[in-house]
Design goal:
- This protein is an alpha+beta fold.
- It folds into 4 domains: 55-115; 119-288, no CATH class; 290-357; 456-525, Nuclear Transport Factor 2, Chain: A (Roll).
- The protein has 11 helices and 14 strands.
- Strands 1, 2, 3, 4, 5, 6, 7, 8, 9, 10, 11, 12, 13 and 14 form a 14-stranded mixed beta sheet that branches.
- The longest helix has 50 residues, at 36-85.
- The chain is globular.
Length: 526
């Protein structure tokens, strides 16, 4: 993996209640965030599995019809041969019976072939099983750490328990999203673990600032603890009810009689068991009610959205374009998909204004042929086509032959990290294979950038002398979901590691500090 131009708010992600989240995470960078590319991959696998499921269903129905027709044909032929047999023509009857037996055997083989799990099916099944049992472990860990949080009187220990709770919540959310459950089945549990993690980080920041936790703080945490205990008990009940041959792939079905689906569906009662959190955090209730600032114009029709899709991807060789519903949370969009060389291309266009909010193409990139500069040209051209102007690349990363470039809006030389767009480009073909712009359209507006009250030199004096500062500039940094601050951004190294420090350009306080963490999952900022 290669990494260049690392600027600090890569951690900005969209976290909404649909397959492609819409909230904006910034105040508390999550401590174990799995790379956004994995979410795109999970969605690709989910869609591929659904297509395979539909194919098998079609083949089953087709087989039933063919068997019925063959049975009727055999019955008719046998009646004819019985009549002929009276005239000594029994040999033809034997041939028909033999042919019928062969047909039944072939039909049985065909049915077995269609329904026999392939290596891909087995891989998916193993992945689903691992995700489920990982979720069980993480939920147990959340329960353990929260119980310790209520049992300790030590401030440092409490911070440790809250940190561990946040990390396990992050990991549980990732595995929950990997399960092939319908979104409505896992909505409440995903929301629960997200809020537990988010609230734990919120409390941890209070402690880090030297503040004490109030009775109300601990009361809310206890209610979340109780809700998690309900979730834990439900998971235990699901495991007790599983048979030895339980198929985790069956979670993609309707749910009648499925112990796991029914268990998750029952957990919708959790929605009244924990409070509506109104603090300014990325999982705060009301996050989906945020004003969408960057969209204007009249609402477009579904047909117009399809026209825009066809125009945007005219050079991709798309086939079988169709509308596949609408999003109902955050930015309201039409969902459009098509096939490109047998792979899915999926996109969302906003109802209001008809803007391309996101798209993802599931094609593979097997080699690195194009340079970073060539890839950047492709990404810049695509942004221009999407009418996203004044965007400056602030982070570029390459993994698995795919470049991921984060762009932020720039005005008068100031980077605005709230208005972020992510572009993915295949390093083999130069094809733009992904875009995520919901943060941009949620936050983009005409801003009046205030004048710094302190100089860059004064701000630099607030940065630890251990960090060898290499770059600096002004940036507007999002604080939670409602506030922004003008900061000096300093990047530099210490002990071989890269850090980003944000100093408030008005009062000189440290707003945020990130450390670049390289792992097998990609590059994280913590």
């Amino acid at each position: 993996m290669e990494k260049k131009k690392n600027n600090a708010l890569e951690k900005v992600e969209n976290i909404a209640g649909n397959s492609s989240p819409n909230g904006y995470e910034s105040e508390s960078v999550q401590m174990a965030k799995i790379n956004a590319d994995k979410k795109e991959e999970r969605e690709r696998i989910k869609l591929a599995k659904q297509r395979e499921k539909n194919r098998i269903k079609y083949e089953r129905e087709k087989l039933k019809i063919e068997q019925k027709e063959e049975k009727e044909k055999r019955a008719h032929e046998l009646k004819k041969e019985r009549r002929k047999n009276k005239n000594g023509k029994g040999g033809f009857v034997a041939a028909i019976i033999s042919l019928s037996i062969i047909s039944l055997v072939l039909a049985g083989v065909l049915s077995y072939t269609l329904l026999m799990p392939s290596s891909a099916d087995k891989s998916l099944e193993a992945g689903y099983s691992r995700a489920f049992y990982n979720t069980v472990d993480y939920v147990d860990n959340i329960d353990l750490n929260l119980s310790k949080a209520f049992a300790t009187n030590d401030r440092v220990a409490l911070q440790g328990y809250l940190t561990d709770t946040a990390i396990n919540s992050e990991l549980a959310e990732n595995d929950l999203q990997s399960l092939p459950l319908q979104d409505e089945s896992k909505f409440y549990t995903t929301k629960l673990v997200n809020q537990i993690g988010d609230y734990s980080k919120y409390l941890n920041k209070k402690l880090a600032r030297g503040e004490s936790l109030t009775d109300e703080d601990m009361s809310i945490l206890y209610r979340l603890y109780e809700a998690n205990k309900t979730f834990k008990a439900s998971l235990s009940k699901m495991m007790d009810g599983m048979t030895e041959d339980y198929s985790f792939s069956s979670m993609a079905g309707s749910g009648n009689g499925n112990i796991v689906i029914e268990g998750f569906n029952e957990l919708q009662n959790l929605s009244v068991e924990y409070p509506e959190l109104i603090y300014d955090g990325p999982f705060s209730d009301g996050i989906n009610e945020r004003e969408i600032k960057g969209l204007s114009g009249e609402e477009i029709s579904k047909d117009r959205a399809i026209e825009m899709f066809n125009s945007t991807f005219a050079n991709y060789g798309i086939e079988d374009t169709e509308s596949v519903g609408e999003t109902a949370v955050g930015i309201i969009c039409y969902n459009i998909e098509a096939q490109v060389d047998g792979e899915l291309l999926y996109a969302q266009f906003s109802k209001k204004g008809g803007k391309l909010i996101m798209f993802s193409y599931a094609g593979s990139c097997k080699d690195t042929i194009l340079s970073e500069a060539q890839v950047m040209e492709k990404a810049n051209a695509f942004l221009e086509k999407a009418m996203l102007y004044d965007m400056k690349p602030v982070w570029i990363d390459k993994e698995n032959n795919v470049y991921t470039i984060n762009y932020a809006y720039e005005t008068n030389g100031v980077i605005v990290y709230s208005d972020l767009v992510k572009v993915r480009v295949c390093a083999e073909t130069g094809m733009v294979i992904g875009l995520e712009a919901s943060s941009y359209y949620t936050n983009h507006t005409d801003r009046v950038i205030e004048t710094p009250a302190i100089s860059k030199a004064t701000a630099l004096s607030k940065v630890s002398s251990n960090i060898e500062v290499e770059t600096s500039r002004l940036a507007v940094v999002p604080i939670g979901t409602k506030t922004e601050k003008l900061c000096y951004e300093f990047s530099g190294t210490y002990d071989g590691e890269t850090y980003y420090v944000y100093i408030d350009a008005i009062n000189g306080a440290q707003v945020e500090l990130f450390k670049v963490i390289r792992s097998t999952e990609g590059t994280l900022l913590m």
